[in-house]
Amino acid sequence: MSDMYRDLILEHHRYPHNFGTLDPHDVSQEEHNPLCGDRIRLDLRIVDNKIAEVAFSGKGCAVSQAAASMLTDELIGMDLDQVRQYGKAELLDLIGLPLDKNPVRLKCALLSLKALKVGVYRYLGQNITTDELD
Amino acid sequence: MIKAPFDVATIRSQFPILQLPSELPVAFLDSASSSQKPEAVISALADYYRTTNANVHRGVYQLSEQATFEFERARGLVALLINATHHREVIFTRNTTEAINLVAQAWGGSNLRAGDVILLTQMEHHSNIVPWQLIAQRTGAVLRAIPIDSQGRLVLDDIDTLLQGVKMLAITHQSNVLGTINPIAELTRKAHAVGALILVDGAQSVPHMPVDVQALDIDFLAFSGHKMVGPTGVGVLWGRKALLDAMPPFLGGGSMIKTVTIESSTYADVPARFEAGTPMIGEAIALGAAVTYLMDIGMANIAAYEHQLSAYLIERLDEVPEVTWYGPPVGADRGAMAAFSMTGVHPHDIAQILDGEGVAVRAGHHCTQPLHVALDVPSSVRASCYLYTNTHDIDRLVHGLSKVKQLFG
After folding, report:
1. Which of B33, B341, B352, B361 is best to mutate for the A interface (most A CBs within 10 A)?
2. Residue-wise pLDDT tens for chain A (134 aa)?
3. Chain A: closest CA distance from residue B352 (Å)
């Protein structure tokens, strides 16, 4: 399915937005997918309950890296309640990939979302339910 | 040019899945994961349910006797394929994994003591690592692994030291990633010389080459039906009769007993002792059909053809400068598969783009995480061949890789 590699994905893969790390940071969460070795670290600075700055680093397939790049663009200025509402449907909408029938690649796309959710819930001192990661 | 000792076009015509009408017929290069099935196997499975379905070893009625006859005939065919001295040495399991777990638990549980060594290799599939870890945790035995060199061959310089204290050498016959064919006969001699037993993971060898348990002189052999044109759900453990006779049961239940009281039981003779519950009757019968199919073509013929495919695959991959493939150079000790990486492109992306071209390969760690640590890559793409693979399939792979370069270049 080469349309998975439409220009936008390849563009974000080649020239990722917000790539790097933040130091200091309020949230730094790393997630990886042991099946393929994809790895995403997401750093956030939070001001007044809003994401003020964001950076991601890591390596992996084009889908995981491009999804992270696109997600970070969305996050700037988002408040933490919105982060809690932001889920799989929103991310898939954002990256525009038909992954419903492709559970393996879906995991690639969702890796940065997992880092975001786990990191923000940890920052808030709350437990995350597995439902929210599915 | 490749000259097969059989007509590959005829072989392909016997596999319905390769005949599906499609604008983009599949170039199936994932046989190391699971092979396709010929009509003879599919109809053997269906015929069992249509004409012979009944439980085995129980009924006094004709259907059950017929089912039992077919089931036991399949056992005999498997024994013939691997040149077992007796059909009772063949135990039907679910797959290779279950066969290895059976030995680890039943043999290991009653023979391993604290400090005993189980020797593995760095190229083992997880199915030949984790079962040994489980029994090592229970018994206090320790695990050790034979390392590999940069060409994906075992480093045997220190084998005599590595074998000290070893009670079991558990080793793959052919690596499912590197394609390396290990020197089993030589390692068996060395293992036996220190009083160790040898279990061979034949999941990748039995489907592709003649494997003679007597000539190799090994103690246990495990393999899966679904990788050798047979159905899923059936595998084989072959073991020396004397060893099997001395082993306690693995799973308890019906069929594996002689007498049962509430307090205790006595157990059936092998192979029934290790086949608790209603077995995979239809699948075993269909595996028998698969064995017949392969033996009619001839395992040596299949090996000879795949050897040429192996050379062709590597030759074509070498035309793509961005590709790094793993394992030994083309030769007698390399099977018809290649795991590879491509500069700057993740294996998942490669596999996905190839899928768009109708080329089915596998991407990931192929259940060999320790091996991928040794190769220093998190994952790889693997293309693997079988008797129905033709050079056109491999050409399509290489053409697909040029698409990958186009997109990611």
Report:
1. B352
2. 456 777 888 899 899 999 999 999 999 999 998 877 789 999 999 999 999 999 999 989 999 999 999 999 999 999 999 999 999 989 988 988 878 778 888 888 999 999 999 999 999 998 877 666 65
3. 7
Query: Which domain does B179 fall in, by range?
Result: 42-296
What chain A holds in terms of domains, given with CATH numbers, is: 2-123 (3.90.1010.10)
- For residues B283 and B371, state if they share a domain: no
B382 CB neighbours in chain A (<8 A) are none
Contact B407 A2 (CB under 8 A): yes
Counting other chains too, the contacts that B394-397 makes at CB distance below 8 Å and 24 or more residues apart are B394/B29, B394/B309, B394/B312, B394/B313, B394/B316, B395/B316, B396/B27, B396/B357, B396/B358, B396/B359, B397/B27, B397/B29, B397/B316, B397/B354, B397/B359, B397/B361
Q: How far apart, in whole angstroms, are the C-alpha atoms of residue B215 and residue A104? A: 43
Interchain CB contact of B355 with A (< 8 Å): yes
Q: Please state the pTM of the whole predicted model.
A: 0.93
Tell whether A54 lies on the interface with B, counting CB pairs under 8 A.
Answer: no
